[in-house]
Design brief:
The protein is an alpha+beta fold and 92 residues long. 26% of the residues lie in helices and 38% in strands. It is built from two helices and four strands. A hairpin with a 3-residue loop joins strand 1 and strand 2.
């Protein structure tokens, strides 16, 4: 299924959840988590958790809550840029 709309990502250490809103209808997906953005290779591991959940997405907006983001400003910015580049949508 291909969708477009808004994607909200909850990236935890044990689980990654995506909630997608398509014309007001919710779609939920889950996958493995990542150790946190401040961890070694944290951005790459976060992308590996998030991107499979959005593989068929054309998201207009993406919001991400990621473990460790509060303490890893540069990594949070790098994750936002990588998601924007990979998916062609702004990320916050």
């Amino acid at each position: 299924m291909t969708f477009s709309g808004t994607a909200a990502i909850d990236l935890g250490k044990s689980l990654c959840r995506a909630r997608l809103a398509i014309d007001g209808a919710p779609l939920r997906r889950e996958g493995g988590g990542a150790p946190g953005l401040a961890a070694r290779d944290g951005v790459a591991l976060a992308l590996a958790s998030i991107l499979p959940l959005l593989a068929d997405a054309r998201a207009e907006r993406i919001g991400v809550g990621a473990a460790g983001a509060m303490y890893a400003d540069a990594e949070a910015d790098a994750l936002a840029r990588a998601l924007a580049d990979d998916l062609g949508a702004p990320s916050r």
